[in-house]
Design brief:
The protein is mainly beta. Helices cover about 15% and strands about 35% of the residues. The longest helix has 29 residues, at about 5-35.
């Protein structure tokens, strides 16, 4: 008779728990895919449900715009320190949020046109980079602003500028981008891509697979996810943050954590290949 407390029994119980969790994860992922309109077929199966990443909603920030005002977010970016977030969109404002306390903007810079992109200044030391933010507007003008003073310090008209066509290496399916720009962000060290969607969901892809590994409903049916960005911690590819903005001006902040690898969790080689 086997001892219920023996190592073999404990290992079997642990494997059964992993097996049960896989089924729960698979069912949840299939529900999210169905809600987002993703239908699997025999030739291109959905990515395996076992994934080394977990995502948790950390904060939801409502739009600061007045009721009825259009406040679609066009771009998001974390500053080099990871302590601040800049947003831009059709409201003609650059809003600065403190990541630790994002309930409302800590600063706001009014700009002359709708914004299609915002980026913090790279290099020059964290102090300098975190105090200057650049933006591109619908008129083709690129401007850099001093965040503390709220004034432009550099401007260039880019009407004549053009992005050469890139060679397609792999396509990622599931998200919807038929009429609107939905934004995309790459976490290179972790090998993850985030995308918005007109379906109102946030999508995350592993670079190795064409189907999403994580799908999350964002907002009400009339809003779509218009911008996404990763907070990439220097020297740490296991923890990070994902921010997503909607066409209704709502922000959602997710924490991202890499789970134990299947090898560490005691999963066999076949499961590793399917992860």
């Amino acid at each position: 008779m086997s001892n219920p407390s023996s190592p073999a029994t404990s290992t079997a119980a642990g494997e059964q728990q992993l097996h049960d969790q896989d089924h729960r994860d698979e069912a949840a992922l299939q529900q999210e895919h169905a809600a987002a309109g993703i239908i699997p077929d025999d030739e291109d199966k959905l990515s395996p449900p076992r994934c080394e990443w977990e995502f948790r909603l950390a904060a939801t920030v409502p739009s600061p715009a007045l009721a009825g005002a259009s406040d679609s977010i066009g771009s998001l970016d974390f500053d080099p320190t990871g302590r601040h977030l800049a947003t831009g969109g059709i409201a003609r404002k650059i809003r600065i949020y403190r990541v630790a306390e994002p309930s409302s903007p800590a600063a706001c810079i009014c700009v002359p046109a709708k914004l299609s992109s915002v980026r913090w200044r790279p290099g020059g030391g964290e102090a300098v980079a975190a105090s200057h933010v650049g933006c591109g507007d619908y008129d083709g003008v690129v401007t850099e602003y001093d965040v503390e003073r709220g004034v432009p310090v550099w401007e260039r008209d880019e009407h004549e500028g053009r992005r050469t066509a890139a060679r397609e290496v792999r396509s990622y399916s599931g998200h919807v981008s038929g009429r609107s720009f939905v934004g995309m962000g790459v976490w290179r060290g972790a090998g993850l891509i985030a995308s918005g969607s007109e379906s109102g969901h946030v999508f995350v892809y592993d670079l190795r697979w064409s189907k999403p590994i994580w799908v999350h409903p964002f907002s009400h049916a009339d809003a779509f996810v218009s911008a996404v960005a990763w907070r990439q911690l220097v020297g740490d590819d296991s923890d990070g943050q994902l921010i997503a903005g909607g066409s209704d001006g709502v922000l959602k902040l997710f924490t991202t954590h890499r789970r134990l690898t299947p090898d560490v969790a005691g999963v066999g080689d076949d499961d590793v290949a399917a992860c």
